[in-house]
Design brief:
With 203 residues, the chain is mainly alpha-helical. It is elongated and about 65 Å long. 53% of the residues lie in helices and 0% in strands.
């Protein structure tokens, strides 16, 4: 049995005008569907910017997770919606919050490969070397997905290409195992440069 309210149903149907009317009439904004997804989560997941902004004006918990442990911020990062990510951060979304696998915001941005979002998070001061439960850094995840530009951006921000995950694999090996040979070669070159900088203390 579905326990969707009229408000959350209107968001699923992308009926923005009806959503605004229901909010204006006092519909409870902080409700969940049968999957534990809040109105905000659904609006974010369907990239409805205006609805997200309207919901953020209400008294809602922006850190509420769905049953899989994903917050609205993580969904926005995976979808690469810059405007929504900025709005969530502006309204206090935590950048060091972890999902059930230990991923933080920068991990999510690295997987999606969205450079603007990676840069936004780096500018906000997130740790570029943060590891998840598998020991993966954002650099490793970007490498596994073949996101060359994201890898370059993370390296420029100081990501260490020599770091190892729990299986003692480097970012270059992640790229190689995923079939991205050109990217693996780029990371191996970055390893040499990093060792040279370390040797001469250029950090």
């Amino acid at each position: 049995t579905s326990n969707r309210t009229a408000l959350i149903h209107s968001i699923y149907q992308k009926q923005a005008e009806l959503t605004q009317q229901l909010l204006a009439l006092g519909a409870e904004p902080d409700v969940k569907d049968e999957q534990g997804r809040t109105t905000l989560w659904v609006a974010v997941n369907t990239s409805q910017v205006e609805t997200v902004l309207s919901l953020l004006e209400k008294s809602i918990d922006i850190e509420q997770e769905d049953r899989s442990g994903n917050t609205p911020l993580f969904r926005a990062l995976y979808h690469g919606n810059h405007a929504i990510v900025e709005a969530l951060i502006l309204n206090g979304a935590k950048l060091d919050r972890t999902d059930p696998l230990g991923n933080q915001a920068l991990h999510a941005a690295a997987v999606s490969g969205h450079q603007k979002l990676i840069k936004l998070l780096i500018d906000k001061g997130v740790d570029v070397g943060v590891k998840n439960q598998a020991g993966d850094t954002p650099l490793m995840l970007a490498a596994s997905e073949g996101h060359i530009d994201a890898v370059t951006l993370l390296l420029k921000a100081g990501a260490n290409p020599l770091r190892l995950d729990n299986q003692r694999l480097t970012a270059a090996e992640h790229a190689e195992n995923a079939g991205f040979k050109q990217l693996a070669d780029r990371l191996k070159q970055a390893e040499k440069e990093y060792r040279k900088k370390k040797l001469f203390g250029i950090f």
